[in-house]
Design a protein that fits this description.
The N terminus is likely disordered. This protein has eleven helices and eleven strands. It has about 325 residues and is of the alpha/beta class. Strands 1, 2, 3, 4, 5, 6, 7, 8, 9, 10 and 11 form an eleven-stranded mixed β-sheet that branches.
Length: about 325
């Protein structure tokens, strides 16, 4: 297992900055290029170098597999004391940990330094879809559940899946086992399925769909946020459409569990500088993110609470026992 993980990491390594440049510092994005974890890794890594927080470009490694489980296992088993490594994480990570999807591994096996932003959930269809509203989608599922396939970047029962079930429940559809959901390695892959007509709805996060939205390839039926997203004010919230659903995906990082307290504090400081920068504010505005700054012990406590909340919700809707 360890040798396989090492070969995968080596094969999928992509560098930020000079081609072929080696860097002591590495960020793992646990999915293919183009998704939310990839965005988080690459954007934060670039800002760190541009601001002089790190002395050289940060190496970014895409390590897709098992909904983030391959990267998590790699960090726990291969890189437990690597103080130069940080890994993109989100509500999807917390969901998988809450549901025991990482082969018995848990949140206490890594350390949690920071969350920098929150990515509002979205439900997306192809630009030529006949559905113009969230109600149109829900009514189609009620009429014939088998005719609607949802695609997301999380595993079955993961956070992207939960968003759909929450919205459908608010719309009066409770037969969750009849909902068709396919799991893919990241939001970009899910969008490709929708655009290609292999799925009808992509469930994911705002940052994952901005490029496709600006290119006119997709339509967002609803944003699962309290308010409309700045810069995308033409997209209505689910609540505006009569569905009391709020589901945001925090964007942050975890670190190897065996690093020193000094190294942990150094990462907290680095990420705090990113969160306070104009460059990060601009990146959030350009990609539909809202500020969500949580650091150090406060973030670690919040993550554990988040995991417990997701576990309770998963049990409530029957995803886990």
């Amino acid at each position: 297992m360890k040798k396989t993980l090492t070969r995968v990491a080596a094969a999928l390594t992509l560098a930020v900055g000079l081609s072929g440049a080696a860097s002591a510092t590495e960020c793992i994005a646990p999915a293919n290029p183009g998704g939310g974890w990839d965005f988080t890794c690459r954007t934060v890594s670039k800002i760190m170098f541009d601001l002089g927080i790190v002395p050289e470009p940060i190496q970014v490694t895409n390590m897709a597999g098992a909904g983030g489980g391959l990267a998590f296992a790699h960090v726990v088993t291969e890189r437990n004391t690597d103080e130069d490594l940080f890994v993109a994480a989100s509500s999807a990570t917390a969901t998988r940990l809450a549901q025991g999807a990482y082969g018995g591994m848990n949140a206490d096996m890594v350390r949690w330094p920071a969350s920098l932003g929150a990515d509002p959930g979205v439900l997306v269809v192809a630009a030529d879809s006949p559905w113009k509203s969230l109600s149109d989608m829900v009514e189609a599922v009620k009429a014939d559940p088998a005719s609607v396939t949802f695609a997301g970047g999380s595993a079955a029962g993961g956070f992207d899946h939960l968003k759909v079930l929450m919205a459908l429940r608010r719309g009066g559809f409770d037969d969750i086992r009849a909902v068709k959901y396919i799991s893919l390695d990241g939001g970009a892959d899910a969008l490709t399925q929708v655009i290609g007509g292999h799925a009808q709805v992509m469930t994911g996060d705002m940052s994952e769909v901005v490029g496709f939205l600006k290119a006119g390839k997709v339509r967002v039926l609803a944003v699962l946020n309290e308010d409309r997203v700045p810069g995308f004010e033409d997209i209505p919230t689910a609540k505006e459409q009569g569905f009391d659903v709020v589901a945001v995906n925090w964007r942050g990082f975890y670190l190897p569990g065996g690093i020193s307290d000094a190294a942990y504090d150094k990462w907290v400081e680095r990420l705090m500088k990113v969160a306070e920068s104009d460059a990060w504010a601009e990146a959030m505005a350009a990609n539909g993110l809202a500020p969500f700054p949580k650091f150090g012990a406060d973030f670690e406590t919040w993550v554990r609470g988040n995991i417990e909340e997701i576990r309770a919700l998963s049990k409530e809707i029957g995803v886990i026992q």
